Amino acid sequence: MSVREDLPHEWMDEAREHDWSLSRSRKLSLGEFNHHLPLGDSFDTLETALLDTAQVFPLMETKLYKRRWVMLMVFCAYSMSNAFMWLQYGIISNIFMRFYDIDSLVIDWLSMIYFLTYIPLILPVMWLLNNRGIRDVVVVGSAFNCIGAWIKTSTADPNMFAMTFFGQFVCSVATVCILGIPSRLASLWFGQQEVSTACSIGVLGNQMGIAIGFLIPPILVPNVDDMDELAHYIRIMFYISAGVATLIFVLVVIVFQERPEIPPTQAQAQARNVDPDEYSYTASILRLLCNKPFMLLVVTYGLNVGCFYAVSTLLNRMIIEHYPGEEVNAGRIGLTIVIAGMVGSLICGIWLDKTKTYKQTTLLVYLLSLIGMLVYAFTLNLGHLWVVFITAGVLGFFMTGYLPLGFEFAVELTYPESEGTSSGLLNCSAQIFGIIFTISQGKILDKWGTFAGNIFLCIFLLIGSVMTGLIKADLRRQKANLQAEMQTVSKMTADVEEDVSPPEVLKQMKL
């Protein structure tokens, strides 16, 4: 007979209550750091204590469904279609400026409308994600993407700029229903050792769309003088976009599900036992705003991704300034940035799944993004396109590779808050900085040239690198405080157990 079986029922009830409260307090204390307990690079010394308290929760059935990969691929296609339509104007901005007879700032707003729309809509979409679920959000987003694409099919006319801007606005609403999904989809459907990789693949869909947006428009819409011929090429591009968006919308409706019948991980299994009425969306937002490491990450993520948005939007102008008539190669350079970034994203996702070194990896990739931006700035005007291809690839590898890192690090810092909420705040920061950097760098390009504009971005990447280092230092301090607190609690627990344990139990424990 075990010691536990010999304990009086009343004493056992008190012990269970004590263990539950202790476990819950530890969980809440650790909650601001991670959702894959324990964090590989932060909490090795706490693993034993956590396992002790985890005995309170029984193991539940888990299962991985093959359907998860189909859903991930469909989501990637949806994200790809939307990202393509974001860049289909910007990468051939000089052609559309002539076609619609507009200036550079107006053409830039065809890209920046995506950023502006995101800011006021992200909070209601996050509420929808938390209250209605991932399927409803994705279906609504893909519907907006499809409708916006069809609106633009009627705008291949020099007098239809207002309508093409409206179609772009409708497509931008779909973006709000995309950017926060990868981390949520990964946690709902994928196993413990797949989460970071799945999140990276989800981000890759958006990057693939950007890559196609860099490559295809300069090929489909050549820079011809005849306006009727140019309108014909633009119309073809718009109809292809609409057809693809329609097919993807149908696939989303058929394939996408809310969540698997059996959860993929123990964390998801336990999460299903939480009463939805206990969750407060407003309280969750307030807790995130009071989480210092996360708020630092919100700013640093916005600085990094905002720089990427500015470079992507203004790439055509920067390349054409130094290499006139190279619209097609400008698209290929953009493609190089994104393809290199996709490789970086996958490598970072796999690395995080294997090592869980979130803090070190995030800081290292941020510093390398800064170095890549500096090299790109100093080599753009050398007159050799092959050099630009190489430096742009290096820049893309690290700057775009940072995207899934930011998502996963945010989820680790904010557990047990919703992944959609943390991702939404990150993306909101990115859109704000994207607008600021795109407008500011565009003005600098007009007045002082590309070198000054790129150095402007380097300054903010340096600030972001310093702030990322502050996140690491703050987490190290909090870890030390938490370890000291847990040692105190453990000592107090030992003293209480020694005082209240029945004599016969103590005798058996000695034996």
Provide a descriptive summary of the structure in words.
The protein has 511 residues and is mostly helical. The longest helix has 51 residues, at 450-500. Helix 4 (67-87) runs antiparallel to helix 11 (227-255). The chain has helices at residues 3-6, 9-31, 47-54, 67-87, 93-100, 104-131, 134-152, 161-176, 181-189, 195-220, 227-255, 266-271, 281-289, 292-322, 327-355, 358-379, 385-399, 402-414, 419-448, 450-500, 503-510. The chain is globular.
Mean pLDDT across residues: 78
Rg result: 26 Å
**What general form does the structure show?**
globular
Helix content: over 70%
What characterizes the major β-sheet?
none
**Total DSSP E strands:** 0
Number of distinct helices: 21
Query: Structural class from helices and strands?
Result: mainly alpha
Order of helices and strands: HHHHHHHHHHHHHHHHHHHHH
In the predicted model, the low-confidence regions spanning at least 5 consecutive residues are: 1-56, 505-511
Alpha-carbon distance between the termini?
Answer: 13 Å
Strand content: under 5%
Supply the key terms:
511 residues, mainly alpha, 79% helix, globular, disordered C terminus
Short summary:
The protein is 79% helix and 0% strand.
Write the layout of secondary structure elements.
Blueprint: H1 3-6, H2 9-31, H3 47-54, H4 67-87, H5 93-100, H6 104-131, H7 134-152, H8 161-176, H9 181-189, H10 195-220, H11 227-255, H12 266-271, H13 281-289, H14 292-322, H15 327-355, H16 358-379, H17 385-399, H18 402-414, H19 419-448, H20 450-500, H21 503-510
Helix pairs in contact: 4-7, 4-8, 4-10, 4-11, 6-8, 6-19, 7-8, 7-11, 9-10, 10-15, 10-18, 14-15, 14-18, 14-19, 14-20, 15-17, 15-18, 16-17, 16-18, 16-20, 18-19, 19-20
